[in-house]
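Narrative progress, year one. The postdoctoral researcher (J.K.) led the effort to move from monomer predictions toward full complexes, under supervision of the PI. The following entry was the first complex the group processed end to end, covering 498 residues in total.
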Amino acid sequence: MDIYRITALGLIGAVLCVTLKKECPQIAMGISILTSVLILMFILPRFETVFDVLERIDSMLTGESGYVRLILKIVAVGYISSFGAKICEDFGESSIGHKIELGGKIIIIIISLPVITGLLDMLGELMP
Amino acid sequence: MKKIIFVVIFILCFTVCSYGQEIDDSLGELNFGGIDSAYEKITGTRTDFRGLVRDAAENNVGGIYDAFKEMVGRRIKGEVSDVLDGLRILLVAAVLGGLYKNLISAFHDKETGEIGFAVSYMLTVGIALGAFLPVVKLMEDYCEGITEITAGGLPLMLTVITAGGRPASALAFNTLMSVCIVMIGKGISLFIIPLINMSIVMCAVNYLSEEPMLEKLSELLKSIVGAGIKGAAFIFTFVAGLNKLTSGLGNNIFMTGTKSVIGMVPIAGDIITGSLDTGLSILNSIKSGVGVVFIAAVVAYAALPVLRVLITAYAFKLISGILQPLCDKRMVELLDRLGDYGLLILSVIFVVSYIFVFGVMIFVAVGSGG
């Protein structure tokens, strides 16, 4: 099963990082990033099934389309920024990690501007 | 002969010649400028006191009522507009403050995913409000439509009642009822509906943030609306009572059953139930086909909005119940509150329908001599 492979890969990567961190931290960082990317590559094909279901849900929402796509974009941006930030924090560069997270948050705000303006318009319609 | 001469001299000495003048000529000699300018200075509105006195002298009750309605109505509308303007500014500030607080708290010491959740939460609130907006529009259109129907049918009702042989009492009752119906109809459109809308907006903004920011204000507005609806139903029932049409029917299975159904109407059900005796006694005396047709038209017009609002309100409550084990607490509470607002809107529709249908019943009863 995939979960065994993912767990095994993660454990091997963690052991290598811990071993090499003191001797050669640059290589340890590289191994950490590589392990994370490999795990993602294992998982991503499985998302196709999830995307199909979400597209079906999106098509069921009559009149208002694109909401599911918007949420997926937000989730993707959130995950990618979190991914990078955590790796930076693991190697002591928490300030860089925070900047990556800040960038992710700003991009999410920009992506979600139509939602915010739509909500404000709706509230404006109700106000006398 | 001497007696006749004495009588003629007596008449010539003790009679005074008086001349009748036209009212306008008499009023022309009086100076109304002082009171007109003083009233305009105090209230800021212009009023024609000469016209009012003319109406009073000519016993033009309708003219006096129209002028009074104009004077009071304009001032009340101005005061209500000022209050609503202030509330609107407060609401805009609260909404922007709430959104700003959400954004800042999402940025501070929070994961990126949490701001993503906040945005998806805003999206869900927007979708829920979007689904609820048609109900609000339905209420506004219904109140406007029912006022137009009644205003359009009033001349016909007046004709029928006058033809019944009671023009004087009919005119007095009709003027009083017209003022009541128009004022209550306008009051609901100008005051209650905007308050309901603002309360819904505050409720939505309240649930956007983790901490309730506008809960007390939203509840206050909702309670004011509830009191306003009850007040409108009470005023109209009181006025109907003044027409000496409060005979009860006693124990009656139909009335008991109908009372229990109408008592379930949110907020104003108890007041409407109290006047059901009057309504049923009038119904028994309805002889005019015009009245029956008018009531049937109003009931037919009301059926679809009532059904739609009822279904929407309970749909929101049902969805709230279903999502409770799955969803965030705020979203569940928001959907439940939107269901409550749906029931509030239902009570507004019921009260407006009750006022106009009951008004028609009274018109017909007056014309039938009931």
